Amino acid sequence: MTTTQTAPKQNGIESGGPIRFSSRLKEGRALAQDVWSIYNAVNLPPDCLNLGQGYMNFAPPLWIREAAEEALRTVPANHYSHPKGRLRLREALKKHYEADFGRTLDAETEILVTSGANEGQYSVFVAFLEHGDEVILFEPFFDQYLPSVTFNGGVPVYVPLHPRTAGVDKPTGHDWKMDVDELRRAITPRTKMIVLNTPHNPVGKVFTRTEVEAIADIAKEFNLLVMSDEVYECLVFDGEEHVRIATLPGMWERTVTVGSAGKSFAATGWRVGWLIGPESIIKPTLAASTRIVFCSNSPLQEAAAAGLELSKAHNFFPTQTKEYAERREVLIKVFDDLGMKYTLPQGSYFVLLDISDLDIPDDYPFPESLNGRGRDFKWVFPSTRPPCSIFSPHSPRACWFMAMEIGVSSIPVSEFYCEEHRNIGEAYARFAFCKDIDTMHAAAERLKNLSKHLKKKQI
Ligand SMILES: Cc1ncc(COP(=O)(O)O)c(C=O)c1O
């Protein structure tokens, strides 16, 4: 007798075979279709301009790529590196950061090279979380935090930033407010960590000194570890101050700062990042990272080191910031001309467009994959917003609509919130301006066509 085996369902998800996969995949939303795969080139019109995903459509400068080629021509750079990272890169990071941190950094014990910021952050969670430990995430949050926390037994606790933009003519990242009392109320005896991200993805907020001090005070009061994700540290505009929480009194010993060659040098595919912190944090994290990747990509560590070593000679970071500011300008000008509201970013490379005024036909054809997603995927906002549980069966999906009709993709900000708080992000679409200036101009030309889809203003 033959038996036909049907693939078992786990947590309502087809496992695809007879072997059960770990339930941790479900908890971290890891098996849900993520927003990036819905809004990628496969699903969108072939000529759609991609301002959705946050990677560049340009390469690192030639002199950095040449350093990568040079590294490949040597024997050692084709082989394993020390799990701490290549000495040349650790020395370059030491030199680059010492003044900013206002202290001497030990390249042997206080700097760890990782396979992108993401792996570094994952390794910190592996090293420090016990089952049931709570991790504070400010919403909206970079989506990788969630599975990285839950895979390691952690419990995310969400503290939303609130867009206090009503009545503000030209909102900026500063108008997304952190409520210190709300943060304090979120702390329990199980709280282990706070994840701070400044400059912030997706809001573009650069946390003020007062805000960072408030977070530091709470971390000290409750003996918490702070993971300060500063991957956009080199993209701060308008003379804003980037405050490193690690530099505040009493914070060095409880803070790990995260950086990324991907963001710093327009090299997201290199997978080179770094962590800076006291030995008490770096040592256990190194133990975790060594088990996960053993070591990071050798030749591109050499190239990242060259990037840091030669950055001053090439006036690289100021030039790069200026170029990003020009790209930002192209995007915000078109929104200004359209009379649409957006959040002016003080850092990072994202603009949040307020899509409340988009008027989209009720019968517009939307794909199944958008069902059950936040309303910024599909909602047209009435002047008074409905409670977040109400979905209109006819409501169009704004980001999808813009991609299909305007030819510019964006990402719905509700995806960066937990279910309970999704309604906060539903009024916004995130546009990334990490694209070359010609692409930004082309996108702006297309975005002008949004004028045909704006609700008539009541006079
Ligand atoms: C806030 C934030 N942190 C970390 C990362 C990951 O950086 P990396 O590509 O170096 O892993 C990203 C990437 O988009 C990000 O936006």
UniProtKB/TrEMBL annotation:
Pfam families: Aminotran_1_2. Keywords: Aminotransferase, Pyridoxal phosphate, Transferase. Residues 47-368 form the Aminotransferase class I/classII large domain. InterPro entries: Aminotransferase_I/II_large (IPR004839), Kynurenine-oxoglutarate_AT (IPR051326), NHTrfase_class1_PyrdxlP-BS (IPR004838), PyrdxlP-dep_Trfase (IPR015424), PyrdxlP-dep_Trfase_major (IPR015421), PyrdxlP-dep_Trfase_small (IPR015422). GO terms for molecular function: kynurenine-oxoglutarate transaminase activity; pyridoxal phosphate binding. Residues 1-13 have a biased composition (Polar residues). Residues 1-20 are annotated as: Disordered. CDD domains: AAT_like. It comes from the Eukaryota. Its cofactor is pyridoxal 5'-phosphate. GO terms for cellular component: mitochondrion. Gene3D superfamilies: Aspartate Aminotransferase, domain 1, Type I PLP-dependent aspartate aminotransferase-like (Major domain). Belongs to the class-I pyridoxal-phosphate-dependent aminotransferase family. This is PLP-dependent transferase.
